[in-house]
Amino acid sequence: MLEGINHIGIAVKNLDEAIKAYAALGARQEGEVHRAADMNAAMLAVGESKLELMEPAGTGGVIGRFLESRGEGVHHICIQVDDIVAALASLKAQGVRIVDEKPRQGLEGLVAFIHPKSLNGVLVELVQVPKG
Question: Which residues of the chain have pLDDT under 70?
Fold first, then answer.
């Protein structure tokens, strides 16, 4: 079921500044900045690992609320799975609290979130990356 850590999501106030800061450490931006109604995000390669930097677009939204309440920092850990539908069904059968009942399209594939109350206060995103 689990294939490993896909990335760590970090909430930032200014995406361009954050990209420059992580680039100073040797991180490389992968692809273009993804722009959505409530969030802008960029994926950065850090060796064999990845970071997803996320800034709010406009006011409000999930990342905007996160920054207001907690400030900049780690937002979530993303775990890659081979079959997200099966993973969600298995977790629900075990009583794990799920945020997304059905997977939805994310930056790299189908995603769904697990509620932090089920995982010691950590927001976990599951991702199923398309094969090939």
Answer: none
Per the structure, how many domains does the chain have?
A: 1
Q: What residues make up the domain containing 32?
A: 2-128
The values of phi and psi at residue 25, to 5°, are -85, -5
CATH number at residue 53: 3.10.180.10
pLDDT tens, residue by residue, 30-64: 999 998 889 999 999 999 899 999 999 987 799 99
What's the pTM value of the predicted model, to 2 decimals? 0.93
Task: Select from 65, 69, 48, 45 the least CA-distant residue to 56.
Answer: 65
Give Cβ neighbours of residue 17 (< 8 Å, ≥ 6 apart).
none
124/1 Cα distance (integer angstroms): 15
Q: Which own/partner pairs from 39-42 qualify as long-range (CB within 8 Å, at least 24 positions apart)?
A: 39/63, 40/15, 41/15, 41/107, 42/15
Q: Are 58 and 38 in contact (CB under 8 A)?
A: yes
